[in-house]
Each structure stands twice: as structure tokens, then as C-alpha cells.
Sequence to fold (518 residues):
Amino acid sequence: MAVAGPGQLNLDESPSWGSRSIDCFEKLEQIGEGTYGQVFMAKETETKEIVALKKIRMDNEREGFPITAIREIKILKKLHHQNVINLKEIVTSPGPERDEQGKQIEGNKYKGSIYMVFGYMDHDLTGLSDRPAMRFSIPQVKCYMRQLLMGLHYCHINQVLHRDIKGSNLLIDNHGILKLADFGLARSFSNDHHANLTNRVITLWYRPPELLLGSTQYGPAVDMWSVGCIFAELLYGKPILPGKNEPEQLTKIFELCGTPDEFSWPGVMKLPWYNNLKPPRVITRRVKEVFKHFDPHALDLLEKMLTLDPLQRISAKDALDADYFWTDPPPAEPHTLPKYESSHEFQTKKKRQQQRQAEEAAKRQKVQHPHPHARLPPIQHQGQPHSQIRSGQPMGNPHAPMAPGPSHHYTKPRGPGGPNRYPQGGNQGRGYPNRGGQGGGYSSGPYPQQGRGPQPYPGGGMGGTGGPSGGNGSGYGVGRPNYQQVGPYGVSGSGPGRGSNYPQQGGSRNQQQYGNWQ
Ligand SMILES: Nc1ncnc2c1ncn2[C@@H]1O[C@H](COP(=O)(O)OP(=O)(O)OP(=O)(O)O)[C@@H](O)[C@H]1O
Fold:
């Protein structure tokens, strides 16, 4: 990985940036762990403000400051929008890092650690979706999608490609506000699209066909493909294109979206890897068939997002103008959305792992002490503080038992089943796709196991909403099985045309304000 000079951040920053110490914060618990570092919930000791601290991982850097972090900081410093995470400041830890026994950690030329300080967000979309029995209402999906598109439109207008849109990078707070986060793979682009960019970006399941076919000249349309995948996932209840490796990913895309030709996608045959990866047979597009139970406006928008040719793919701005957002039921106002106990992907995964361990322990115990006539008391497994909680319940519901405190613990072992979702990090155990950009050759790298459920379209139809964890029968989608479900604030699905309920934030359809930055 390219690095900046040791000790140099090279940022035109105000003097206060980076001058405060981590001691100004009390770390509360770990809430995330990604490729580039751990994320902690923390409290500013003076103001008591709750923040998220993203520790910049330095252990792979022989010298200097990781270029990915520099990019992320530079880009975040110039983006200011309600739907983009706000980088508040950078703080440093003063001394050499010590382990839990107080021993100095070696091999790091930097004396201390560096943290990015963000406003705390209660959930990420993956964590929220993974809650048992989670159901999003249609206005809720519209509300999240609209905010996602507004944030992304703002990035694109400011010539920033996100390049890693996925559920765990969409943060949501308990006021219903969604923010784009994790700009670690983001970069600026110029409108002429002539610069050569790496095509090894975007988490596999959300990666568009042009990148899988080796394109290095691309633009905002790459993010819009990912948005289409997220949109379908929200409605369908589980990821729609869970490929295990790049060739399989492309196959899955073709099976859903049909095979491209020069007519449907001019220039496709000239893409670097087309000849190697061209489909062996012609497949017709099946988006309409597979998602036939979606609302027609949703399906129409999805078709435009999952368009193979990036030049014909809908832009964020045009998507915001789609009928989907302007027909009943309207998008919910964010503050009307239900509040939930905090849920980040890191924690929900961990809870599931603990649950599995508890179940296995229970099975073992049963084998060792068979007692056919008595019911065993439930095993109280350490780290299962919420076993009584129907955690899909919104917090506002007086009948929903609430957790007394945080549901997650500080230490998270790396390695199999650990939080590092990319093979590059040495973890083979996660059901997560290769993030790209850091891996080996096109099809040579180790590929992840799929932990989120089997084939996406069993029987060619909607099937059940098996849920993101696969097989638990509790999908969070608002697809057919849930369509009758009415939002928690009682919005019916068949109102009379455009009414007074229409997005307050947006004004009229053609006069939407996507923020105050234009
Ligand atoms: N401001 C925040 N508030 C609350 N949680 C956050 C915040 N920022 C990040 N997180 C949590 O930490 C997780 C990882 O953060 P982030 O994606 O920024 O790190 P990363 O190292 O780039 O991860 P990845 O490799 O998964 O992309 C997020 O999915 C989210 O659950």
C-alpha cells in the first residue's frame, strides 16, 4: 500500500485538527471492525457527547500513514451534507501503544494511534436488517432509499465516487437519519472519465458488471449499481447477488440481468476481460420475473438501477425524481420512524455467533446428560444479555422489553468467524465477499464462504424471504410476504394519489432540495 511520509498527514487542516488527545474521550465499547481499523463508541469527557472513534490501523504500515486513511480524511473534510457522515476531528493517542498487560506493542513507527472522530450513529443498515423478525415498512424503505440517493447525489455532484456502498456502510440514527459512511475507498473523479482507476473496488456482491469486466474508466454509475443491489435487498429480504468470487458474481448478474451485447451495451466487447469472461450462452433478462411481486414503481426504478450499461444506468438525481418516491405511500419522515436498540453489523454477527455457541453447548450438554422427561432450564450463556428481547421491536413500543444496556463486548478475536470480512486480513471464516482493491488476481484469491443464505432465487420466483442470515425465515424485506404489513405509523399502501403526505424535505418533485450545497 502506498504511504505518505512518516509523520506527515499533508492535510491543509485547521490547527485544532489532530491536536487533541484520545484522553478527551472515554471509550465505551467496540461497535465495529473493518479492514482499516476498529470502531469504538466513546464519550467526550467534558461535553458527554457520544461519538464514534475509528482507529486507523497502522500495523500493516511499515512506515508512514496509510494512504487510504489520508484519502478518507481529505474527502470527508470537504463533504458536508445531512446524509454524509460528519468527520468531527482527528485525535491521537499520546504514547506508544500498550497491550492489556501494559507491555509496549512493537513494530509500529508511529508512537501513538490516530483516530477519526465521527458523530455516533445507532445502527448500520446491515445490523438493523439482521435483527430477528425485522420488518421495514414501505415508507421506511422509501425514506432510507431517498436519503441514500440524496447523500450519493451530493457526493457525485462534488465529484466523489464512494466505491463501497453496502449495508454496513449506511449508518442510521434513532431519528431515522441515514448517512453514507466509510470513505476509505472513495476518490475524486473528473467528469471526462478518462482517468484510469482501479477496478478492484466495491464489495463483491455490490460490484457492477463493468468493474467485473475490467473497466478502469468509470464514473458515478458504479455506485448506482450498488444502490440497486441495496434497494432490491431491502425489498427482497436478503442479498440478491451473493457471488463467491468474481466470475461467479458476473454469472449471477447475467442470470438476473441477462447477457449484454453490443446492442444493449455498446462497447461491452471491448472491455478488458470480456473475452475471458463472456457468457457461454445468451440469457434473457429476468429482473421483472424474479421481483414480480415488487410494487410496479419499485420494479421500474430497480430496472433502471440494475441496467448493465453504465451509461444508461439511472443517476442518483434522476432516481430521486422516480415515480417510486412520488406515489403512495410516500416516504416516511425520518423522525417518524421507529427507534430500535442499537444494532451494528459487528454486534449482530457476534450475537448470532454467541447464540450458535450456546446452542451447540446445549446440544453437548444434552448428549452428556440425557434426561428425557425433564425440560432443561435455558442455558445462560455468557454474553447473551438480550436473550429475552424481541429485538425487532421498535423502542417506542411500551410492550417491547428493552435491553438495559449495551449488548456488545469489547474484545473480538480476529481469525475464523472474526470480524475482518476480507480474505486479505487473514480471515477465512466470514460470510463476506472480497472487498476488492486489496486482493490477489482476478480469480485467484481465496474467496469467502457465503454466510447469508443460499441461491437468491429458489424456483425462479420470490420464494420465501429467508432473511439475510439464511434459513431463519425472518427476512426483513417488504416483499410479498410482508406487503400486507402496514408501517408502524399506519401508512396504508393505497392512498389517493399525491397527497399532503409527500416528502416534506423535497418540496415539489422538480424542485427538490437535495441539501443546501447546490
Ligand atoms: N459514526 C459511526 N457511528 C456508529 N457506528 C459506526 C460509525 N462509523 C462506523 N461505525 C460502525 O463500524 C463499522 C465499520 O466502520 P467503517 O466501515 O467505517 O470501517 P472500515 O474499517 O472501513 O470497515 P469495512 O472494512 O467494513 O469497510 C460500520 O459498519 C458501523 O457498524
Q: What stands out?
A: Residues 23-365+372-505 form a domain with the Transferase(Phosphotransferase); domain 1 fold (CATH 1.10.510.10).
